[in-house]
Design brief:
Blueprint: H1 9-16, H2 19-30, E1 35-36, H3 41-50, E2 53-59, E3 71-78, H4 93-107, E4 119-122, H5 142-153, E5 157-166, E6 172-180, E7 186-191, E8 197-198, E9 201-202, E10 217-219, E11 222-226, H6 235-243, E12 248-252, H7 257-260, H8 264-275, E13 278-282, E14 285-286, E15 289-294, E16 303-305, E17 309-310, E18 314-316, E19 332-339, H9 341-350, H10 358-368
Parallel strand pairs: 2-19, 3-4, 4-5, 11-12, 12-13
Antiparallel strand pairs: 1-2, 3-19, 5-6, 6-7, 8-9, 10-11, 13-18, 14-17, 15-16
Helix pairs in contact: 3-4, 4-5
Length: 380
């Protein structure tokens, strides 16, 4: 596993490969090259002042006769918590908010396409440490109020992952993402469908599996969905958001190098290809230390941290292209300009939904989940 201070795959390739080889390697790793956005100098100065990385790329689509470009921008925010993990919950959101306010100034500059500013997504539980049990964060929480203000002020949709305590149903805890419209109103929420039972991430001891299905949110800028964290490992999870019409699926995550880093560049990109949509993979950065030791249930020594959260947030397109990732080590903002017409254009070429044979799989899966199911194995 790469050490935490190892900056990024992209930096390593650019440092060690000659230009011709680098171009071919990037073609194989990232597909069609994405155009770099010409970011305003004021935004770059803001990033330097705030000590966060700022990158921008554009995905382009062919010109159509009957539809104009459907161009939107998305902003992916990756960050570490600025205070120690044991700091009071009430104090945790404020420094993160300040950092994102600095980055939002860069997003609000007059560099937006004519369709308006972007949906914006932060990584999983962006205000807080990766936690077990914490008090509820709802729309009355200061960080959520700030998200509403930000959405309305900058005419953008905000995806804000939170810990939800469901007071109407016995204080059940959910891993939830709130979608805030560019009007400043809550458009809706979605809950994490798949709960891991993997080492330190045995979330079944504190979260319930989501019960809201696979909602897709119609915004002014396009249809978006949120596949929370561990849900990215389940192809059918991505698939159902696509079936419900998502143009863009965000995947806010908090995942560490030893567990998943080799899978990270592949899964969201595969989902974009298989489902004819854009996907946005967002991870946190840094290492979070806890005051008390805990074990992973694997026979190894107790420890005080999960491991290194490796950032590397990126955007993938339905034509198999993707942006370079953000740093493994720094806070960052990745801006991507998407022409949503590319979704249908790729669908017209590959026809995965036309050739999907969903009726066949629906029948076979309905049989496979029955208690008396016997696998179809042919023997001599």
């Amino acid at each position: 596993m790469a050490e935490p201070e190892w900056e990024s795959l992209e930096q390593c390739l650019e440092k060690h490969l000659p230009p011709t080889d680098l171009r071919e390697v990037k073609r194989l790793l990232y597909g069609k090259e994405t155009r770099k956005l010409d970011l305003p100098s004021q935004a770059l100065e803001c990033a330097a002042e705030g000590d966060f990385e700022l990158q921008g790329y554009a995905f382009e689509a062919a010109e159509e006769q009957l539809r104009g470009p459907r161009t939107v921008r998305v902003g992916l925010v990756q960050n570490r918590i600025p205070l120690p993990a044991e700091a009071p919950v009430a104090k945790q959101p404020c420094p993160s908010r300040s950092a994102q306010e600095r980055s939002s100034r860069g997003r609000s500059l007059p560099s937006q396409p004519r369709t308006g500013p972007p949906p914006d997504s932060a990584r999983s539980h962006w205000q807080l440490r990766f936690h077990f049990l914490l008090p509820s964060l709802t729309a009355v929480d200061p960080a959520q109020k700030w998200s509403h203000t930000l959405a309305k002020k900058h005419n953008m949709v905000v995806v804000s992952p939170i810990l939800e305590r469901d007071g109407a149903h016995g204080d059940v805890l959910w891993n939830t993402a709130v979608v805030i419209s560019n009007s400043g109103a809550v458009l809706g929420k979605t809950r994490k469908n798949h709960i891991p039972r993997v080492g330190d991430f045995n979330e079944s001891t504190y979260y319930m599996e989501g019960n809201l299905g696979h909602p897709v949110f119609q915004t002014q800028f396009g249809r978006i969905a949120v596949n929370i964290c561990y849900g990215r490992h389940h192809p059918l999870n991505w698939f159902m958001y696509s079936v419900n019409g998502a143009d863009i699926i965000f995947n806010p995550s908090a995942t560490i190098g030893a567990l998943s880093e080799s899978m990270w560049p592949i899964e969201a990109r595969n989902a974009a290809i298989a489902n004819h949509c854009f996907t946005c993979a967002i991870n946190r950065v840094g290492k979070e230390h806890f005051p008390h030791e805990f074990t992973s249930g694997d026979g190894k020594k107790a420890h005080k941290d999960f491991g290194y959260f490796y950032g590397s947030s990126y955007v993938a397109a339905p034509d198999s292209s993707r942006t370079p990732g953000l740093s493994r080590t720094r806070d960052g903002l990745l801006v991507a300009e998407l022409n949503l017409n590319l979704c249908r254009q790729v669908n017209d070429v590959w026809n995965f939904k036309m050739t999907g044979r969903y009726d066949m799989y629906a029948r076979e899966l309905a049989e496979a989940v029955q208690p008396d199911y016997r696998p179809h194995i042919v023997r001599e």
